Amino acid sequence: MSKKRAADYERVLVNRFWESGFAVMRAPSSSGTSKMPRPDVFAGSAERNLLLALEIKTSRQDVFYVQKEQIDGLIEFANRIGGRPYLAVKFVGKRMDFLFLSVPDSLTESKGESYRISIDNLKIKGIDYTTLINP
Questions:
Q1: Selection from 57, 69, 52, 51 nearest residue 113 by Cα
Q2: N or C: which end of the chain has fewer CB atoms below 10 A?
Q3: pLDDT, tens digit (0-9, with 9 covering 90-100), for 34-54
């Protein structure tokens, strides 16, 4: 998927959080300009007592892989700020909204240094947006 299209999906999610009363910031790190781990999106709501660190992934395939190093960085960032780390996944063209996986608990390890994300596993272990923002 093109970087522009992926960024468009991130912006949609950012706007959804803002409309739900969250302070939200998009801070994509795929450019490689920073060695410090940071999420693609950071959202917080004092009213809900909720801080979320989100790595956003979109795919047209039914299966893709995420490097453990990227998930470890997401977890480190969330721990330092006192937030909850989640992987936000959208399978494009599947008539599904974003679903959210708690990391690393809801991820499936694969051979090597990655996690395997499948549409079937996402449907089983993922939570929807409403459930995510209303813990």
A1: 69
A2: C
A3: 678 889 999 999 999 999 999
Q: Is 70 helix (H, G, I), strand (E, B) or coil?
A: helix
pLDDT at 25: 95
Q: Which tokens belong to 4? A: 């522009």
* pTM for this model (two decimals): 0.90
Q: How far apart are CA 101 and CA 32, in angstroms?
A: 24
- Coil vs helix vs strand at 135: coil
The answer to whether the beta carbons of residues 81 and 54 sit under 8 Å apart is: no
| Domain hosting residue 11, numbered range | 3-133
| Domains: count for the chain | 1
The pLDDT assigned to 8 comes to 85
Q: Catalytic site residues?
A: 30
